[in-house]
Amino acid sequence: MTERASDKFDDIKSKIEKSINPYITLRIDLPAGVNKENFLKLVYNQEFKDAIKEYVKKWLESQKDIDTIKIEQ
Amino acid sequence: MNVSTVFSLIFVLILIFLVTERYHRSVAALLGVLLTIVYGVIYGLFSSQNLLHELASLIDPNTVLLVVGVMILAEAVARTGLFEFAALSIAKIIGGDFRRISLSFILLTVVFSTFLSNITSMIIIGALTISLAKQFEVDPTDIILSEAVMTNVGGLILLISSIPNLIVSAHTQIGFTEFFKTSFPLAVLISLVTIPIIYRKIFHYCTIEHEIDVDPWTVVDDRGLFYRAVFVFMCVILGFIFIDYLKIPIGLISIGGAIAMLVLGGQEPESIYSEVDWGTVFFLISFYIIVGGLEKSEVLNIFSENVAHLLSFRPDLASVLNIWVCGLSSAFVDNIPITMTLIPVMEIISGIIGVSVKSLSWGIIYGANLGGNLTPIGSPSNIIALGILKKEGKNVGWNKWFEYCLPLVLMQLFIATAYVVFLSVIS
Question: CB-based contacts of B251: which residues, under 8 Å, 6+ apart?
Answer without folding.
Answer: B61, B62, B63, B64, B65, B66, B69
